[in-house]
Every structure is written in C-alpha cells, then in structure tokens.
Design brief:
There is one protein chain. The chain has 152 residues and is an alpha/beta fold. The chain has a single domain, classed as 2,3-Dihydroxybiphenyl 1,2-Dioxygenase, domain 1. It is 18% helix and 32% strand. It has helices spanning 17-30, 83-95, and strands spanning 10-14, 34-39, 42-47, 50-56, 76-79, 99-106, 114-119, 125-130. The strands form 2 sheets. It has a 4-stranded mixed beta sheet with strand order 1-4-3-2, with helices on one face. The protein is globular and about 50 Å long.
Length: 152
C-alpha cells in the first residue's frame, strides 16, 4: 500500500494578482515558507514539507469570488507547531487586511484543537491550527462519525 508523505503543493487561483501577491508573500514568508518563484505568472513558496502556488485566473473569471460550498476547494489549513504560532499567524492576517472569520480559539475537532480562520482578498478561506500530541490519531479518538463539530 502507498504511504503518502504529505501534500506536495496547493495551487490557488486569484482574480487580481496586484492585490493578492503582496497578501500571499507576507503570509507565506511570515509562516516560514521560502519564496522560490516570483514572476508575472505567479509565486511559489515552499517550507515545512508544504508548497503553495498563487496564480492568476483566466480573464472571463476575473470578476468572480471564491465559493466555499461549490465543488472544489473548501479551505486550506496550515498546521502550526504551537498555539503561539497560530496567534502570530492571526497577527499577520490582521496586518495584511485579511477578513477574520474567527480569531484564535479552541474548536471541537480534536482535543486541544486551536485555530484561526480568515479569508484572502478573493474570499478563499485559510486556517492555521495547532493540535497537540497525536490529535485524532490518539488511541480511542478519531473514529469515523465521532465529530460533533460542523465544517464552516
């Protein structure tokens, strides 16, 4: 059986590069990713076994906004190493003008689940979380159907 080693990269499409590139450069580098590509076609940052690419939408779609409950991406969640990292990411999100959906708080997805949730200029939801220990993989947790929390 294959053994997945994480997600190699996520590519997000944005409607206005002039508005979104400064947003994502600050966010991604502020979370410790290194910018390895920066040109008119987009940016690409890597770090923490994660790659994120930001690229432009096609002209017919430039006036659209992200629709969270439509088929496709629901949101992106970055795993932080500590609650303090989640709080720092919240500060960066405020600094770059993100729409804050909720500030750092404990959620019921797993014991100790602590997260911040915000939106980029296109309304794409971005989360940063910290889950101590083994999270849902801890013995006795993570059984299918156990979650009593809904996905916003």
């Amino acid at each position: 059986m294959p053994d997945i080693n994480g997600i190699a990269h996520i590519q997000l499409t944005v409607t206005n590069m002039a508005r979104s590139i400064p947003f994502y450069k600050r966010l991604l580098t502020g979370m410790g990713l290194t910018l390895v590509l920066d040109n008119p076609l987009g940016i690409y940052a890597v770090g923490g076994r994660t790659g994120v690419c930001i690229s432009p939408s096609e002209a017919p779609y430039d006036n659209e906004r992200f629709k969270q409950r439509h088929p496709g991406l629901h949101h992106v969640c970055f795993r932080a190493r500590s609650r303090e990292d989640v709080e720092e990411i919240h500060e960066i999100a405020k600094e770059i003008g993100a729409t804050i959906i909720h500030p750092p708080q404990e959620d019921g997805f797993a014991p100790g689940y602590y997260s911040v949730l915000f939106e980029d200029p296109d309304g794409i939801r971005i989360e940063a979380n910290h889950v101590p220990g083994e999270g849902l993989l801890a013995p006795g947790l993570g059984q299918v159907g156990d979650a009593d929390t809904t996905w916003d």
